[in-house]
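Researcher: We're teaching a course module on how sequence relates to structure. For the next exercise, students receive a sequence and then see the predicted structure as tokens, so they can try to spot secondary structure elements on their own. Here is the exercise chain.
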Amino acid sequence: MKTGLSLARLRISIADMMDLRVRTQPAPRFLFQMLHGGAGSLVATTPRDVPAVSIPRDLYPITRIMPQQPASDVAVIIYERQPNGRYDAIEVVSQGRFLKFGQFYEIACRSVSKAEAGSQSGYAYFVPSVRDWGAILQDGGYTVLDPSRAQCCDITRELLESVNESWSCGLIARARLQPSWPQMPAFSRVEISADAAQDSWMSYVDYLRLRSFRSSPPDLFVPRFRQWMKRLCDESGFRSWVFRKGMYFGDRCEWWGDQNPRRTEHEGLDFAEGVKPDGAKHAIPEGTPVRAIADGEIVAFLDDFLDKTIVVRHPSLVHNTDVFYTFYSHICPVAGGVRKIAEGEIIGRMGKSEKLQSHVHLTAAWIPQSIDPGGISMNHINPGFAAVVLVNLNSLIRSAGCSDGMRESEAVR
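Model: And here is the predicted structure for the students to work with:
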């Protein structure tokens, strides 16, 4: 089977089978993977050298799922056990039709290419939304069923929580979120390549190491960022910035209110408070200018929960096939629209928010050139979307005098 990427096979990895702990004897012939049709997210990303991240079904409860008669808004991937014990995807039941996996893949790619970035230059993905990731977090994992045993039954949260060794109602495997995982987990590591060789997948631990290596900013960006941070501090009337737990990249809690847990890791840095020359702590003032860190081009304006996010592409900062971007969130853009901009140019100003203390949220990311700059959305900078690598700027903050964020700390004197 040939597609634009010569995709041949979708296969559950050995490591994932161990995580799933399939323990019926004999092993079932088929495994089902449920996908909510509205989510449109079969595979979060499948770059050539990185494992896929599979996003199964949506919110609880999925009721009365029959293997041969799935609900109209639910697609089902059917994995068949092979002679070597592995499970390969053979068919997808979608909208009442049985499709070979290759057919489904091609149809889905065409559909996604119209609404999302599509399938180009080694990337093929069905982009998960923030809501999809939230559903997985709420569900705490996912479930597969044995069609040879599953009858028409209601699958509820209570049923899943009460499952025991008897594996009643055909439930044969569960994968749970692991608290020890340092970031958004990959729920199903699957091989997706031209030949699906046994060594074509990567362990999740190795995958994390790769992402950590790629999460560094370009060298040319570092002095510009420090200068930008210092200038924003001065123009806010501060002698130094104040950073608290919840403001740092990767933090899992909010810094405001009761410091509630975040649904995903914090995607960037929040510049919200500083110390005035008299020693008093203040919020960043309304109207403070927000400038571009480096030369680039504004490619998009996105709505966020406070104001607007300005997306800046830096075409001179390239690594392999990725381009460096900066995202400036919760600010009011100045007039001008999509355009080229220079380092230090004012692109927005701090607005006034009744929902939350005003602040600038800065995200930096490496984004594949295959993703259309004009089609970038907030979903692309979700920590769970593996094609985009978010950049960790914490070390640059701490090198300016900030501690580990466990207590209030000052930076940029």
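Model: If you want an answer key for the exercise: The longest strand covers residues 308-319. The mean pLDDT is 66.
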